[in-house]
Amino acid sequence: MTDSDEVHDATADETTVDVGLPMLRKREIVAHVADQTGQSKADVRRTLDSALGFMRQGLLDGNELHYPTLGKVKIKYPNREGAKPMFRVIPAKETSEAFQDDSSED
TM spans, by residue (predicted)? Predict the structure, then answer.
């Protein structure tokens, strides 16, 4: 990531979001994944909670998250006292390579 990448302050974004903007909710994501994979919603929910919890902890531990179908996510902690953490997100480009099955990397 470079300094020219867009950086978002999570707190500022939450307070300035237009209420009319659409938002993906957990139930929609779970229903979509269950439909696409044939798994039960309960199994999908447990899997997503585990995966997202792992990603969250990795980010909080200072790691950068790179998941080809999503993109790159990083928490940037400013050096000045009292400054809020900033989230930097670089969405993945829509290429066939980014959306290939990563099962061989397990």
Answer: none
